Every structure is written in structure tokens, then in C-alpha cells.
Amino acid sequence: MPLPYPSIKPCPCGSGRSYASCCQPAHSGAAPQTPEALMRSRYSAYVLQDEAYLLATWHPDTRPDGLDLTDGTRYLGLRVHGAEGDKVSFTATLRLPDGQRAQLREHSTFTRLNGRWVYLEGTAP
Ligand SMILES: [Zn+2]
């Protein structure tokens, strides 16, 4: 089960908007309209440990069987560098289970499946 998160608080993805007006609708079933919106909602899902959402928005060809979101990794922040077409580049700041900070930089590729954007794959820049 995802962690509870108040609708009026700033969205975990760092957009500056409230959770209710940013990633919450996607987590509640609405289809994100752009790859960036989907990417942000997936980042927020990592923060909130919403495994079901992450798997549901992952292309079946590349989707893992499951995710361990309770290994102690904390998601500290997201910066989106750019979005163009089906690509989004970003840096996520993490604190690993051993306490070390890490920066995850990724170019994510998204594709449409049955009319909805899904995550296909990510590569390091
Ligand atoms: Zn958001």
C-alpha cells in the first residue's frame, strides 16, 4: 500500500503545485497527458512507495516482476532538465540504504500503449 500523503501538501515531484493538482489524479487513475507528467507521477510514486502504480505505468516488455520500495532508499528531490517528444531527462537525488547520497541521472523513454503513456526504458546520459 502506498504511504498516505496529504492532498494539500506540495507535490513530492517538486513541481511547486499541491499534490492534489499535480500527481494525485494520476495516482488515482487519470491518464497523464504528457511523458513529463507521467515521469513526475512515477517519481512521486517512488516517494510514496506505490509499487502498483509504478508497475502499471511500465511497458510490459521492460517491466520487472516487482520492486523493493522498502529497502530504505529515500527520494530527496527531482529536477527535470528537459522533455521533448517521448523523452524526458532528469536527475533524482537519493539517499541509499547505507546513508550515502546518490544522484540518478536518466534519459527516460516513454511510449503509448492503449492510448496511455507508459515508461519504456531509461539510459544514463
Ligand atoms: Zn507532482
Automatic annotation (TrEMBL):
Gene3D superfamilies: 3.10.450.50. Pfam families: SEC-C (PF02810), YchJ_M-like (PF17775). Residues 34-122 form the YchJ-like middle NTF2-like domain. InterPro entries: NTF2-like_dom_sf, SEC_C_motif, YchJ-like, YchJ-like_M. It comes from the Bacteria. Belongs to the UPF0225 family. PANTHER family: ADENYLATE CYCLASE-ASSOCIATED CAP C-TERMINAL DOMAIN-CONTAINING PROTEIN (PTHR33747:SF1), UPF0225 PROTEIN SCO1677 (PTHR33747). This is UPF0225 protein ACFOZ9_04010. It comes from Deinococcus navajonensis.
